[in-house]
Write a structure and sequence with these properties.
Layout (H helix, E strand, L loop, with lengths): L14 H9 L8 E2 L5 H11 L11 E7 H16 L6 H9 L3 E7 L9 H21 L3 E5 L2 H4 L1 H7 L7 E11 L11 H4 L6
Helix pairs in contact: 2-5, 3-4
């Protein structure tokens, strides 16, 4: 994508980073394959995720790095749990874990604060998800941010992810080697979703 010269501040510009942001594309989780980043390669990705905006420095999130054996266990648990739930698809609930080789679960950890509303903490947890996703893509890995039944079921999270009361899953960031480069999908039309207010 050609970046207009007026879009950058020449003194501080990072055209490569802007080009990456303008063209970034998640990779479908079911297409991610081996190899995956090892612990050393994952460290800078996690560090980038931890640099999320965080009003009040509350750190209202934490990360669980789910490796293959844990993902297999979660796949079985998700299949069993979804089968017991009305309307949940057991195959869909299980496959995001069964097909994955590495996943970072971003856990929202709301903190009591007289100054920072819980909604701001929730937004920070979402930004942490995006930070991990973007850092993984920037590092050359395929990555995808999923949620689904297992992310929203409090009993599943408590029993199988050992979450404390009040904690919840903001997202499952699956990371691996892209097996297929997807075509881009339609993006929002600025004329529809952007309003300019000058008074």
């Amino acid at each position: 994508m050609d970046i207009p010269m007026g879009a950058i501040n020449p003194a501080k510009a990072d055209p490569a980073a802007l080009e990456f942001l303008l063209t970034r594309r998640s990779r479908p989780a079911k297409t991610l394959a081996l190899p995956v980043p090892d612990r050393a390669a994952l460290q800078p990705i996690l560090t980038a995720g931890l640099r999320t905006p965080d009003h009040g420095k509350l750190e209202p999130w934490r990360f669980l790095v789910l490796q293959r054996s844990a993902l297999e266990r979660l796949g079985r648990a998700a299949r069993d749990g979804a089968s017991a739930q009305h309307g949940a698809d057991p195959d869909k609930a299980a496959k995001q874990f069964e097909d994955s080789h590495l996943c970072v679960a971003v856990i929202a950890v709301p903190k009591d604060s007289p100054k920072v509303p819980e909604i701001e903490q929730t937004l920070s947890a979402g930004a942490a998800c995006y930070g991990v996703l973007m850092a993984a893509l920037a590092a050359g890995w395929g990555a995808n941010w999923l949620s689904g039944w297992a992310a929203h079921d409090a009993d599943f999270a408590k029993q199988h992810l050992k979450l404390a009361p009040g904690e919840w899953v903001a997202g499952f960031i699956h990371i691996g080697t892209e097996a297929i480069v997807p075509t881009d999908r339609p993006r929002p039309d600025q004329d529809v979703v952007v309003s300019w207010i000058d008074v």
